[in-house]
Design a protein that fits this description.
Length: 929
């Protein structure tokens, strides 16, 4: 639905805010303690004094129970709390270790007995594993578990702990059937998603992570502009005690196992040349009070030069001895994080924070944009660095929250998230060549240049707590605003690109032999391009209870505009997203919930639409095309896609998915929970372009929305979960997902389908057929990222011995292989290439695989008063060993690094990178206090 009047939209938002303002527009980093005070007959006790005290920060708040006995403490910093309740004539009540978590309510039921003596009742609080006021499917991956496991040191790796993640290649997962570009990445609530690509925009210091919340289903109206996972990295804060750590993490490829096997295509060994270089990774943290009970600081820094395992380019069956070349990536990493929290009064909190992640030394095969296509030589690889930020950090943010009386709270925030990427040829600076014989690239890199993509954000919100027919309720509303920019300046090395019948890597590029019809693209005067965008988000929702029933009724409105580098408005879309969920408390104790919900989720229209379609100076596109006539290069045509030639689709909307889910959850005791959830999603209004060439030889590729009868995508799943928070010496996260993702379009806005109507294309083994037939044949089927079954288990158990704590942490995953099909590329009328599917999408599948990891940590503790102390705390020394791929499984797992041509090599691996990485080791020495 399109909402044309922005002024009307703004008025609507202001009305919502004045009527009932609410929590942070994109959710909140804070939690709630609420509950009721009852007498021994179950009747409400109004007027009871309720006091909550932060166990690690010291601040207190006080409230009085209302006429229904209810009390509510919103916007509490995460951590443990002590709750005390007193009322004249009754015994006092105290509940300890009530853990507050972001966006969750920790509920306390207090029963006060008549005071016949001066005794008090003390109980142990609980960790809120299920919450009838928040039925979102959220996996809380806490550092108490992740610091014990063998896992990659990045928040992106922790996303795979959640059910419904079918593929997490490169840290951009496919979640619940969605594209890898449709997740939302937040650092303490600040949007760090790359606005141009929709992928993650920054890395983060692993030691600064308190927990990562991965929300996948039943998302409330506080969040929008995403169809995948909502990933919120919650960072550590200082407390009233000084705490810190130092870690030295060591790796060496020479310690690791060798790659197994030989290429079934060429017979060449997959064994790599090991690098006997010990990589030192230094990580530091320090946190504590500036002003006891009021102001705390936390900081983290990590520095490493990481030499990775030897990798390999694609191996050509035509020139096996001159391709499949080895290379080693050496990255230089510096990760900063700093945070200052100020609880100036018990009800007013200010937080300031910065983080940055400058990394250089990446080696990327950007030519690997489709299965079976990639770099054959080192010269075709791209070197990359990122976020070499000027100023104090890449992301800076300020946040305020306040509570006013017993019925109103509010939040506001401002942040700047910036980032850049520089790309250059990894080796050499020659022009790239694409060989039609083996579908591999030679001689030149994909990119040479840079991009810069900052995002400025502001948000304001508030809440009003009230009653509906004697039951607690909260009306919420909020607004957030973002300004985004996307600057691109890159080109092919030497501004030339060749498509030739067969490239011979044994001779220089200047000595290549050409065949009739080979193509030379000479690019025309590339220049930088900068597009801009603005986003407004508004929401309102009502949470209420009616007996055992809890409900959340919400509506979100998002307004997005985008302009090209010609200042032409190319996106102007407003969308309405209803969100409804309800939960029934089966036993009346909040421990067994049956819930269900419906939500509509719109995909953010990435800024790349403005950059790649409507730009006045398109990157790596405008060119003169020459064809080899047998003796010379003969001019064929000029191809351009300048934004002036593109008609703007003023009715373009982002695609949306309608999601239905139903779940049963049960909390067992105070630290365990199990659940089962069914999910169904269907996509509508998928965005795609229809490529044509107009009478002036301009390429026209304006995007449109298409009905679900034309472009299709759907997903269904059944998920089982088990969670055990740390108690009784152990903790665990276990889940299993049975799912299926199908469709015929899996691109953001520019797939090959529907292209070139009225034109003919020539396909190998098929002949000359209409281009629209070639681009759509066998396209419907199983998504390339689909995994039918995925089972995950992450467990840690600690033995508390007299002088040492020993923690064993096994983890593992079993997953269905990825699907693939027979395919090959063919030429389009503009000289670009598309892919023809000879067999239906997903008709073949790699075998099921598994991986087991294991970690063992020993930490030595002080004995009585004889131990070491530092800054008022005990000094803990430890060592940790990690083994990845413990059983050394090397199953074929990549569907993009195999031969997909319809011949005797179909489905065979093209390099060692097609397989699981061999068994590898990591060792850590640590100091904590």
């Amino acid at each position: 639905m399109r909402f044309r009047s922005f002024a009307t939209c703004l008025i609507l938002a202001l009305v919502c805010l004045m009527a009932a303002p609410a929590l942070l527009a994109d959710g909140t980093l804070l939690g709630t303690i609420n509950g009721r005070v009852l007498d021994q007959d179950g009747k409400a006790l109004p007027g009871a004094t309720v006091e909550v005290t932060s166990a690690d920060k010291g601040f207190q708040r006080t409230a009085v129970s209302d006429s229904t006995g209810a009390f509510n403490f919103p916007l509490l910093q995460p951590g443990p709390y002590i709750v005390k309740i007193t009322l004249a004539g009754f015994q006092s009540f105290e509940s300890t270790n009530n853990v507050v978590q972001p966006e969750k309510a920790t509920s306390i039921s207090a029963t006060l007995k008549l005071a016949t003596t001066a005794e008090a009742v003390t109980v142990m609080g609980e960790v809120p594993l299920i919450d009838k006021q928040n039925t979102t499917a959220t996996t809380n991956v806490d550092s108490t578990l992740t610091q014990k496991l063998a896992v990659g040191r990045g928040y992106q790796n922790l996303i795979s702990f959640a059910p419904g993640v079918s593929n997490n290649s490169g840290g951009n997962p496919n979640v619940h059937g969605s594209l890898s570009s449709t997740n939302l990445y937040l650092f303490d609530g600040v949007d760090s998603t790359d606005p141009t690509t929709g992928t993650f925009g920054q890395n983060f210091n692993y030691e600064a992570i308190q927990e990562v919340n991965v929300s996948t289903t039943g998302i409330s109206a506080e969040y929008g502009r995403s169809q995948g996972a909502y990933v919120n990295v919650i960072t550590k804060s200082g407390t009233n005690q000084f705490h810190g750590s130092f870690k030295l993490i060591l790796t060496n490829d020479n310690w690791n196992s060798q790659n197994k096997g030989v290429s079934p295509i060429t017979g060449a060994s997959f064994a790599r040349t090991k690098n006997d270089t010990t990589v030192d990774d230094y990580a530091y943290t320090l946190g504590g009070p500036f002003w006891q009970d009021h102001i705390w600081f936390f900081g983290a820094y990590e520095n490493t030069s990481n030499t990775g395992a030897a990798a390999q380019t694609f191996q050509s069956p035509v020139y096996p001895n001159n391709t499949g070349q080895n290379y080693t990536q050496v990255t230089n990493v510096r990760l900063w994080d700093g945070k200052l929290s100020a609880q100036i009064t018990p009800s007013q909190l200010f937080v300031g924070q910065f983080n940055s992640d400058p990394i250089t030394g990446f080696i990327v095969d950007y030519w690997n944009y489709a299965p079976g296509i990639g770099s054959a030589e080192l010269n075709a690889l791209t070197a990359q660095g990122q976020n070499d930020c000027s100023g104090f950090g890449c992301t800076e943010q300020l946040h305020w929250s306040g509570v006013f009386g017993s019925t109103v709270s509010a939040e506001a925030g401002y942040s700047v998230a910036g980032g850049n990427i520089t790309v250059t040829p990894f080796q050499g600076d020659g022009a790239p060549y694409f060989s039609l014989t083996d579908s591999l690239y030679y001689n030149g890199a994909t990119f040479d240049g840079l991009v810069y993509r900052p995002r400025t954000q502001a948000s304001v919100s508030a809440s009003v707590y009230h009653e509906i027919f004697g039951n607690a309720a909260t009306f919420k509303g909020g607004v957030d605003y973002q300004i985004i920019k996307s600057l691109a300046s890159f080109n092919y090395p030497t501004n030339n690109l060749y498509y030739i019948t067969q490239y011979n890597p044994t001779v220089p590029a200047a000595s290549q032999q050409f065949a009739v019809g080979d193509e030379w693209d000479q690019f025309i005067n590339p220049q930088p391009s900068t597009s801009r965008g603005k986003i407004w988000g508004f929401y309102g929702l009502e949470k209420f209870e009616a007996g055992r029933l809890s409900a959340n009724l919400g509506l979100r409105v998002d307004h997005q505009t985008s302009t090209s580098d010609l200042a032409k408005t190319v996106i102007d879309a407003t969308n309405w997203s209803p969100r409804v969920s309800a939960a029934y408390d089966v036993m009346g104790d909040g421990k067994t919930l049956v819930s269900g919900g419906y939500g509509r989720y719109y995909q953010f229209l990435i800024q790349n639409i403005a950059d790649s379609i409507f730009t006045g100076v398109p990157q790596e596109y405008n060119r003169n095309i020459y064809l080899w006539d047998g003796s010379n290069w003969a001019f064929d045509k000029t191809v351009s896609a300048g934004g002036n030639a593109q008609p703007v689709n003023t009715g373009l909307d982002p695609s949306y998915t309608d999601e239905f889910n139903i779940a049963v959850q049960r909390q067992i005791g105070s630290t365990m929970a199990i659940g089962v959830r069914g999910i169904y999603r269907k996509w509508y209004n998928l965005v795609d372009d229809v490529k044509t060439i107009d009478a002036n030889d301009n390429l026209i590729l304006t995007p449109y929305n298409f009905s679900s009868d034309v472009l299709k995508r759907n997903y269904k799943a059944l998920e089982f979960t088990f969670e055990k928070r740390f108690s009784g010496n152990w903790q665990a996260l276990v889940n299993y997902t049975l799912s299926r993702a199908r469709g015929n379009q899996f691109s953001d806005f520019a797939s090959q389908q529907l292209d070139w109507p009225g034109e003919n294309c020539t396909v190998s083994l098929v002949g000359t057929i209409p281009c629209t037939t070639a681009s759509s044949t066998n396209q419907y089927g199983i998504a390339s990222y689909d995994r039918t079954s995925v089972a995950n288990a992450f467990v840690a158990y600690t033995w508390n011995l007299p002088i040492v704590n020993i923690t064993a942490a096994p983890s593992g995953t079993i997953f269905s292989g990825l699907p693939y099909q027979e395919q090959a590329t063919y030429g389009n009328p503009d000289g670009s290439r598309s892919t023809y599917f000879y067999t239906p999408r997903g008709s073949s599948r790699l075998p099921t695989a598994y991986q087991v990891n294991f970690a063992l940590e020993a930490t030595f503790k002080p004995i009585g008063n004889q131990g070491l102390w530092l800054i008022g705390g005990p000094l803990e020394l430890g060592v940790k060993g990690e083994v990845f791929n413990f059983t050394n499984q090397q199953q074929q797992v990549s569907n993009s690094l195999i031969s997909l041509l319809p011949n005797q090599n179909f489905g065979l691996p093209t390099s060692r990178n097609s397989f699981q990485a061999p068994r590898n080791y990591r060792f850590t020495g640590l100091i904590r206090f």
